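I have a small job for you when you get a moment. Would you make up a two-line entry for one protein for me to read? No commentary is needed, just the two lines. Write everything out right here, beneath this request.
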Amino acid sequence: MNTTFDRYAGVAFLLIGAGFVWQSTTIMDSAYGSNVGSNIFPLGLGILLMLLSVRLLAETLRYKSQSGERTRLDYKRFGILLGAAVAYCLLLEPLGYVITTFGFLLVGFQTMERGKWVKSLLISAIFSGGVYVLFVQVLKGSLPPFPGWLGL
């Protein structure tokens, strides 16, 4: 555990979360054809990011650092996840929420823990499909649909 990096990251993510919450208040409360406003997800994600940042900061304050121990940062995994996040943003509209989220989660799971393909496929499929059904069918919200060439 690199406590210095974790402290800076915790403060940075706390500020980003506060920015999400602040800016989500400027978004319209409801969207056309949707019972759930477009400000709900950014607000919820901002609050979640702030809570996780506070937890990270609290853990770094409790952690006793071993002197002389240096941790090596894993740039390869970071690059893969950053590339997957950029690809997710670029492909969300053309491929739709379910396919893009499934692919992003699968890449993320396999980057963090190689192998266990069945577990990764199952969790990615259940999460992406479940969130889509919950948000679109139950809450009557809107997410990017499946692409037209799939015929769904």
Observations:
- Helices lie at 3-24, 40-62, 75-95, 97-112, 117-138.
- The mean pLDDT is 81.
- The two ends are 46 Å apart (CA to CA).
- The CA atoms of residues 10 and 30 lie 32 Å apart.
